[in-house]
Design a protein that fits this description.
The complex is a heterodimer. Chain A is an alpha/beta fold. Chain A contains eleven helices and five strands. Classes of the chains: A alpha/beta, B mainly alpha.
């Protein structure tokens, strides 16, 4: 047999086999797309998961943190990108000497209490990271209270915003917060829950300085909701952003800057250790 | 018919002797280890930061939700992320890892992301000088003075090209599997992959979603890739008939393919772009459930567009090749 004829046999056979396989693949894909998918029904429920629950925080050998909430938890405004969450992790590591892991940071910037409540009721997959944690960090409510102010400021009529406008949103938002806490507790009753309350981001605007009273009202509502929970802590940070607010706020005049987040993190670490 | 077979044999051996297939193999042997290494680094980082894949996927979802909350992001881009969030959510709800960390999963992802650019490039390496090369080399006169009808010569070239296209796709898959398996392990054939996501505007219909074992998914995906590649091959055969120089033929085809992928990225604003072949080349999107670049495209539409372009290219190729005068 001539070598070229042998080569032809090998190449020819391999190519023919490949072509056949690919043609079959194409036929299968067409059947899949045009016949199977239209006919298919939902594939039944998810298999039961074995989730290792986080247990209690104080006696845990390993600290597992899940953070959720709004842009504060996300770390918006912090140029180092750490936010308060990463700093809390570092501080806890130093203070306790235990291994500290972040399970997930589920924060979404711009989230209101109502939206977080909806998210928790809708996305079953959030249960998994919440269940694994023994420390849950939460911030929420800032967007409920201050979004009207921010929107007014963008359209250039900040002067028209008064205390009542800010206060008007509190009862509904507080109800959502109650629901959020209940949902978290239903998923994980053993973890320590840290709720970082609000500060007045508009303290440096004289017209809005009295907004502090509204913020305090909200914080009071948060204490009412969370205070009865033995494993929960409300961390106040209002005072951190009053005297030298410009030094601790980022350039958007709404979020803390890196130093601001560090101070928040110190507060939280103090409350926990 | 009988006299076609020796011609095909001749053409097949000619392509082999031109060492084009070695070039493809060499490209694969250089590129795939690179991608495997990159993927390995990604996996290592993920393993460091996340307890398991569920947390990782959840974080991915949260990050996309944050992007969606961003007002500066245009609405058309949000559409993709919104649909991806829903898909990831579906995987998470059913406790299936969407990025199974094994050789089969790597092969699936590598091949899917290669349809738009990498495969066309490989095909062009084979096809672009099929006819123009004979002209440049002067062998075309020898070929055409044989007592064989011209259409049979072109037909034998087309058949040989088809064979090499198939070989190239299968070889890519095989090399990908063998090399990535060294790092990720040779498993994952039976991992479930979800297919059947139907895109309805900005939302995704999951009622038809069902799991398919990964081996079956890869075969189906390869079949779709084959159709895309054959379209490229046929078009480039036409260009090779029409254009005298091989370089010009490569450049023409590459320009068409690249412009297609750019247009696909720009999306929506120009509806008529959906009739271009290169916008329709990414057939595997339909299997994955990725939204098509332009609203209103579906698998049958894309196949028709590719089919019409191929048919037209074949008609032009054969008409020109059988009539054309060979000078100098």
């Amino acid at each position: 047999m001539r070598p070229s004829s042998k080569l032809w046999r090998i190449v020819g056979t391999a190519a023919l086999a490949s072509t056949l396989l690919l043609a079959v693949g194409f036929a299968m894909a067409m059947r899949e797309l045009l016949v199977v998918t239209p006919l298919a029904q939902q594939t039944g429920t998810a298999p039961a998961q074995q989730i290792e629950t986080g247990g209690g925080f104080q006696n845990a050998e390993e600290i597992r943190v899940t953070a959720l909430g709004d842009s504060l938890t996300k770390g918006t405004g912090d140029n180092s990108g750490k936010g308060y969450v990463k700093t809390v992790l570092e501080l806890l590591r130093e203070e306790t000497g235990k291994p500290v892991h972040q399970i997930n940071n589920l924060a979404v910037a711009g989230l209101t209490a109502k939206e977080l409540d909806d998210m928790l009721s809708r996305d079953d997959s959030l249960e998994y990271p919440i269940k694994q944690a023994n420390l849950i960090l939460l911030t929420i409510g800032g967007n409920d209270l201050f979004r009207p102010v921010l929107e007014a400021r963008e359209s250039g009529e900040a002067g028209d915003i008064n205390l009542e406008t800010i206060e008007a949103g509190i009862p509904a938002a507080a109800e959502s917060l109650r629901s959020v806490v209940e949902r978290i507790r239903a998923i994980n009753p053993d973890a320590t829950l840290v709720y970082t309350s609000l500060y007045n981001p508009f303290y440096d605007i004289p017209d809005l300085r009295e907004g502090s009273a509204a913020v305090q009202k909200w914080n009071g509502a948060a204490y009412e909701i969370i205070g009865s929970d033995e494993l929960a802590v409300v961390v106040p940070i209002m005072d951190l952003f009053q005297q030298r607010s410009a030094d601790y706020m980022s350039s958007d005049h709404f979020h803390p800057n890196q130093q601001g987040y560090e101070r928040i993190a110190q507060r939280i670490a103090q409350a926990l250790t | 018919m009988m006299d076609l077979l020796p011609l095909v044999q001749n053409e097949t051996l000619k392509i082999w002797k031109k060492k084009r297939f070695y070039v493809i193999l060499l490209i694969l042997l250089v590129l795939i280890p690179l991608f495997t290494y990159a993927q390995m680094r990604v996996s290592m980082t993920n393993a460091e930061n996340f307890k398991d894949w569920r947390n990782q996927v959840q974080q991915e979802i949260t990050e996309k939700q944050n992007l969606l909350a961003n007002d500066r992001m245009p609405e058309e881009w949000k559409k993709y992320d919104r649909i991806q969030v829903q898909q990831l959510q579906y995987y998470l709800d059913n406790d299936v890892n969407p990025n199974s960390p094994d050789a089969a999963g790597f092969t699936r992802m590598f091949m899917a992301s290669s349809v738009a650019m990498f495969f066309p490039l490989l095909i062009l390496a084979l096809s672009s000088d099929l006819v123009s090369g004979e002209r440049t080399g002067g062998t075309i006169k020898m070929l055409l003075t044989r007592p064989v009808r011209r259409w049979k010569i072109l037909m034998s070239k087309l058949i040989a090209l088809t064979m090499y296209v198939s070989l190239a796709i299968i070889t890519t898959g095989a090399v990908c599997y063998l090399i990535s398996g060294l790092v990720f392990g040779y498993g994952g054939w039976t991992m479930p992959v979800f297919t059947g996501f139907v895109v309805n505007g900005a939302a995704i219909d999951t009622s038809g979603v069902h799991p398919v074992p990964q081996w079956k998914y890869i075969i189906m995906q390869s079949g779709l890739i084959w159709i895309s590649c054959m379209t490229i091959a046929i078009l480039s055969l036409m260009v090779s008939v029409l254009v005298r120089s091989t370089a010009a033929s490569i450049v023409t085809m590459m320009a068409a393919v690249i412009s297609g992928s750019i247009l696909a990225g720009m999306t929506s604003s120009w509806q008529a772009a959906k009739y271009l072949f290169s916008v329709n080349i990414d057939l595997t999107d339909y299997l994955e459930g990725t939204p098509p670049p332009i609203a209103g495209m579906d698998i049958l539409f894309s196949l028709s567009v590719l089919g019409i372009w191929s048919l037209a290219a074949l008609i032009v190729s054969f008409a020109v090749f059988t009539k054309q005068d060979i000078l100098n």
